[in-house]
From TrEMBL:
Superkingdom classification of source: Bacteria
Keyword flag Lipoprotein: no
Protein name stated in the entry: Glycosyltransferase
Keyword annotations of the record: Transferase
UniProt key word Transferase: yes
UniProt xrefs under InterPro entries: MJ1255-like
PANTHER family to which the protein is assigned, alphabetical: GLYCOSYLTRANSFERASE, UDP-N-ACETYLGLUCOSAMINE--N-ACETYLMURAMYL-(PENTAPEPTIDE) PYROPHOSPHORYL-UNDECAPRENOL N-ACETYLGLUCOSAMINE TRANSFERASE 1
Transmembrane parts of this sequence: none
């Protein structure tokens, strides 16, 4: 079997899932080619797992100061180029397309009648999970941005739906824990982050951001993004302040880290993620980046580690079996292998 795997480059959670599955495909001896879109070609990093991958511009959203910029997003995305790339992508060599919310490979598969398995967090929103700001446009985007013949949606809880646990790389807490708080707010202004954190001089923060601020406060360590350095800091930190993306939160939940979320305004997925975590009692949420909210959160205790099973090999085995209409058995086995906090079990009656 030869597979084309299309991956959305907006957000690092898509890349994390792709790395997990790429290693599983390699262990199974499956021939896989990779196509990435959604961010500039020179902004991808740690891509060794994907070999000589393809890149297309694709579609993404633009942000400023923690908000989606609708007008800038419309101007930035070249729909004509995207449509041309869809028409020119030849899927004749492939038996299957695996897709993580990547529009070019998904629409090419639809037009050329090639089976497409969507594996993403976004696919979870096609089922009755907690949503915030739900509306017609959001549902259209989730359904048609990257259509698939079969959907494997991932979420932190099954919510009585056919969903999978998060697909993340193995991570364990370090024996030596420190008092630094990890901060990952890529959509916020670097200067605004530094200004808010400077007002808490007795707490040390470790910030990962694409740009440095004008001045770095003495209580802040500032880092450009590195996967290895980030994972090391995450494993030993006392808590995480981040946006409400799926990937990092999943890793923090596994480690039992306390969470303070600042979701991206205007972004349906992040607002819904924040709501789901509040309902589960797994995170605190702030509407704005605010020193007072951070100070109220800092004394809170650590959370209870969530036990999600390794998913890469299980998904690849399911794909190779070819029974793609049987999603429920894969979901059932996966949640049976999970260890959810007892408090979560009382919020949604366990379906399995």
């Amino acid at each position: 079997m030869r597979i084309l795997y299309g991956v959305q480059g907006t957000g690092n959670g898509h890349l994390t899932r792709a790395r997990v599955l790429a290693k599983a495909f390699k262990r199974a001896g499956v021939q896989v080619d990779y196509l990435f879109s959604g961010r500039a070609s020179d902004q991808f990093f740690d891509m060794d797992d994907f070999g000589a991958y393809q890149w297309r511009q694709g579609l993404t959203f633009c942000t400023a100061n923690g908000k989606v910029q609708v007008g800038k997003t419309a101007r930035h995305n070249n729909l004509w180029r995207c449509w041309r790339d869809i028409k020119q992508l030849d899927l004749q060599p492939y038996d299957l397309v695996v897709n993580d919310f990547e529009p070019i490979s998904a629409w090419a598969a639809k037009q050329q009648r090639v089976a497409c398995i969507g594996v993403s967090h976004q696919k979870a929103f096609l089922q009755p999970v907690p949503v915030a700001g739900d509306g017609f446009i959001n549902q259209v985007v989730m359904k048609y941005f990257a259509p698939s013949t079969t959907s494997l949606g991932c979420h932190w809880h099954h919510f009585d739906c056919n969903l999978l646990p998060p697909i993340i790389e193995p991570i364990t807490a370090t024996a030596e824990q420190h008092n630094r708080v990890l901060v990952y707010l890529p959509f916020e202004s670097a200067d605004e982050i530094a200004q808010q954190l400077a007002g808490m001089p007795h707490q040390h923060f470790s910030v990962f951001h694409g740009q440095p601020p004008v001045a770095i406060p003495p209580n802040v360590s500032w880092h450009s993004f590195s996967r290895d350095a980030f994972q090391h800091e995450l494993a030993g930190c006392s808590g995480v302040i981040c946006s409400a993306g799926f990937g990092l939160v999943s890793e923090a939940l596994v480690l039992g880290k306390k969470l303070l979320l600042k979701p991206l305004h205007g972004q349906f997925e992040q607002l819904s993620n924040a709501l789901a975590l509040e309902l589960l009692g797994a995170a605190s949420v702030m509407k704005q980046l605010d020193k007072a909210d951070i100070e109220r959160w800092l004394p809170q205790p650590q959370g209870v580690p969530v036990g999600y099973p390794p998913m890469g090999d299980a998904i690849v085995e399911w794909l190779l079996a070819g029974r793609w209409d049987d999603v429920s058995s894969l979901c059932q086995r996966s949640w049976q292998r999970s260890q959810l906090p007892e408090a979560w079990l009382h919020k949604w009656v366990t379906a399995y």
